[in-house]
Amino acid sequence: MALPLLGPDDPPPFETLNAGGASRALVVCDHASCRIPAALGTLGVSEIERTEHIGWDLGAGAVARRLSSLLDAPAVLAGYSRLVIDCNRPEAAPDRIPAASDTVPVPGNVGLEQADVDARIAEIFTPYHDAIAAALERMTASGSLPVLVAVHSFTPQLVDGDPRPWEIGICWDKDRRMADPLIERLRADGLLVGANEPYDFGVLTDYTVPVHAESRGLPSLLIEIRNNEIRSAKAVETWAVRLAGHIRALLDLPESQRLERFAE
Known about the structure:
Elements: E1 14-17, E2 25-29, H1 47-50, H2 60-71, E3 75-78, E4 100-101, E5 104-105, H3 114-141, E6 147-154, E7 168-171, H4 179-188, E8 193-195, H5 208-213, E9 220-226, H6 233-251
Parallel strand pairs: 2-3, 2-6, 6-9, 7-8
Antiparallel strand pairs: 1-3, 4-5, 7-9
Helix pairs in contact: 2-6
């Protein structure tokens, strides 16, 4: 039997902000932290690498925090690095606990026993998603129809990839009723906006929006900001203010105020 993963000095697996916020938006951030539980050491990855894009979504947590404040919205932020377990990957995803990320080896993830995998799921992945589900249930019980807003960031270029020119990408799976108007509004701001770029949805690449929003028929947004756009407090504020204004407008749209289910 594996020992408990999180020790008494480790922070909780998620952080909840503004739980009683009045907004219909629920802000979530799957990759808000680059923290690793003390029991896992460094996973064999240098601090420089852990604190770059392979370890978390740089700036995304900061934007999520400001959106929570600006919108008066509840928020749930994941508490540990995507190198420990990726909170936006389904069970079958090969990179849920990555052996390497963007060509960087992660030795501490190689040759894991099933008990070790189960501990990461039970102590980090599941509590985070339970917190999102609980927040949605609270909001629904209060009489509002929640809108899930997932905040991510992306690196300007992967080691083996092409440059990514988009300043921001808006992604969707089956439900694009919120994505399309946000893309239109951001392009009107003069921004280069990716539509399902730099990532498209897939059965092995996304968990949070399909499970928490689409399965419930809830409207949702998945926002990807290029991380060199949000590496300073001033830049985070600029993006958060811009996005908050657009999200407020989207919350008034009729399509954001109804349940809608999509065929598999």
